[in-house]
Every structure is written in structure tokens, then in C-alpha cells.
Amino acid sequence: MQKYDVIIIGAGAAGLMCAASAGYRGRNVLLLDHAKQAGKKILISGGGRCNFTNRKVEPNNFLCANPHFVKSALARYPSQQFIELVERHGVEYHERDHGQLFCNDSAKDIVKILMTECDWAGAKVQLRTEILAVTKKDDTFEVSTSNGDFSCESVVIATGGLSMPKLGATPFGYRVAEQFGLTVLPTRAGLVPFTWHSDAKQKFEQLSGIAVPSTITAQDGTQFSEALLFTHRGLSGPAILQISNYWQPGEAIDINLLPNQDLAELLEKQLQQTPKQSLKNALAQWLPKRLLEALFDETLLAKSLNQLIHAEREQICQQVHHWTILMNNTEGYRTAEVTLGGVDTDELSSKTFESKKIPGLYFIGEVIDVTGHLGGFNFSFAWSAGVACGQAC
Q1: Residue 393: CA atoms inside 13 Å, Cβ hemisphere, count?
Q2: What is the tally of structural domains in the chain?
Q3: Which of 9, 217, 230, 362 has its C-alpha lying 20 to 30 A from 36's C-alpha?
Q4: 196 vs 224: CA distance, rounded Å
């Protein structure tokens, strides 16, 4: 049985970062993963360009049953430090809206950085290795795999959540947590598109491909202002992905389709200038015609502005600024970018990510109950948690 100081299970963002950090401390590190390739989720993220962090990462960008849990790791390894790592490796990047940073070329550049760091730190990365069991005898962990058995002082579980099963996502990390007596909070798909109810599908599926600016509000009052995209299956786009983290089945969402303008004022102005213009042509200055046809009755759209009574104008403004719709469900883990819930952070040290019950057992990354907003925040926390854990395990 080969002996190591640290065995990390999961060669994703958090696991790779942890392996390099622990290796640089002089720890003898083995990183194991069942996949053929390290960093598979990194590779497909950001349309293949990887939104690897954000200029402004703060604790309020994260969902966690204990909102204070993320503070320590984020403070000790802020996003600027990862940006400097990217720059040291000569990887060119650019900034998009809301401080999001993407590789100019390819997400492969980020995986290459992490693999190079592991190599320089002397951390061994072994892929195509199925983990069969993790057990503990006295102060030693034993990890049984399809490529032999290993022992170590510290085990780090960085196996991710349930999102994107086609990339190899499994509940392995949750099973290990439960095996050792840790609480696992209920999980569900996050940063995920919504699907239509059948009646809404008939009405709106022909809008597939239309994108508009929006402000979307969940029932708890949480609000995001970003693009909304209509698909043949339902609603997507950044605003929808963000709000999905705050949505529960059976809840309606409130959509403002003209977030930066006051439709009542616009219509009043238009009425003064072109009183005989049809409502449809007036509204088409600000919203796509196909969307208008789906939202409003044909007879109403055909009316000229000077034919509209006060109540009709109010109804139009209400529908545009507060379109309330009940979605059927989300698309689930198949297309979800993240998994909400997971290993309860109350069970872990916020400084080291070590289990409070089982010395030497650590959990980092998506397997724990920390979920970031869209925009590079999930990777940001993966880097911070990987470093915090790597400096302790």
C-alpha cells in the first residue's frame, strides 16, 4: 500500500488548487479522479473561455446556510491573487460586464496553469482511477481504488456536486460525508434554465431566440438585472440562471421587460407626438414584435394610442413592468451549472475546511453548501477554498 501525506479526490478547480498549495508546503500529495481529463468543468465553462474569477468578489455573492462561512477563505485568497497567478503564466484575459474575467483564447489555459502548478509543487495527479472506498483506521485513512490501495494522514473530498452528469458528476462526496457522520443538506440544481408549463409552451415557444434586457424578482424579493433569453423549452439567460438559485417550485417570478425606462411616460410622450399610431408599432420601438404578440391581445395591439382608455394603458404597463409567470420547473442537473446544498458548513472549519468531527477529513468545492452567483464567483471560491485547505491538510 503506497503511503502519502495527503490524498485529494477530485481533479476539478478546488482539488487542483488544493493539490498545488499542499505540494508547495512540502506535503507528499496524490490527486485522484475517475475522469480521463482534469478540470472537465473548467474546460466547458464560459463557452469554452472560462469565466475564471470576478474583479469584485464579496461574501454576499454566495448562498450558504451559514452566510459567514465564506468570509475567511475569501479574505485570505482574494480574486486579485488568482488574477496575478494567471498573469504570471502569461495567459491573456479580458473583462466583460459586471467584472467578469475570461480567457482570451481557451479555458484550456486555466487547466494548464493548474496542472503546471501541481507539477512544480510535486503533487502527483492520477486520472482514470475509480475510488472504491475511503476508510479510517486510527489516525490513518485508506483509499481503495481501481488502481490499487493508498494510505494517508489527510483526505480531501473535492468531488463536486450533481450538476452536469454527462461530465461524470456523482454523489460520491455526499456519500463519504454521510459515511463519516456529517450532515448533508438537501441538494437541487442551481444556475439553471426554467421550463414552461404546457399551456405557456404553446404560447411562448415560438419566441425561441429572442433576448431582452430584464429585471427579474423572486418571491423572496431577490432581484437580478441582466439579459433574459426565450428558448423553445422555457426561459434562460443570465437573469434567469441567477434567479433560479432563489426559486422554489410553485413560485411565480416577476419580470420587468423594460427595466431602464418608464413605459407610462413613454406612451404619454408617444400619444402627444403620434396619437394615431397603433399600440403595436409604438411598443415595437422598445420590445420585439413577436414578444408583444405573445403578451397582448391582437385587438388591443391594433388600437391607436388615442383609442386606449386609462385602464388599458395601466394594464399594458403592468404587463410590461411586472409580467408575472409561473414556470413549470427547472431543466435540472442536466444543464445546471452548480448544485445548491451539500455538506453542511457547520460541520467544517471555515479556516481549513476540516471536518470538526473527523480529524484529517476535509471537504472543498461544490460538494459543500456554498454556491456562488453567476459571473466567476464559483471558481473564485474554489480557488480560495483550495488554497485554505492546501495550507492546512
Answers
A1: 40
A2: 2
A3: 362
A4: 20
Q: Which amino acid, 214?
A: S
Do 33 and 89 have their domain in common? yes
Question: Residues of the chain with pLDDT > 90: what percent?
Answer: 97
Assign residue 225 the CATH number of its domain. 2.40.30.10
State whether the Cα torsion 216-368-35-109 is positive or negative. positive
The residue type of 275 is P
| Contacts of 2-5 spanning 24+ positions with Cβ under 8 A | 2/30, 2/148, 2/149, 2/150, 2/151, 3/150, 3/151, 3/152, 4/28, 4/29, 4/30, 4/150, 4/151, 4/152, 5/29, 5/152, 5/153, 5/154
For the stretch 47-81, pLDDT in tens is 999 999 999 999 999 999 999 999 999 999 999 99
**Segments forming the whole domain that contains residue 176:** 2-189+336-390
Q: Do residues 302 and 320 share a domain?
A: yes
Regarding whether 110 and 230 lie in a shared domain, the answer is: no
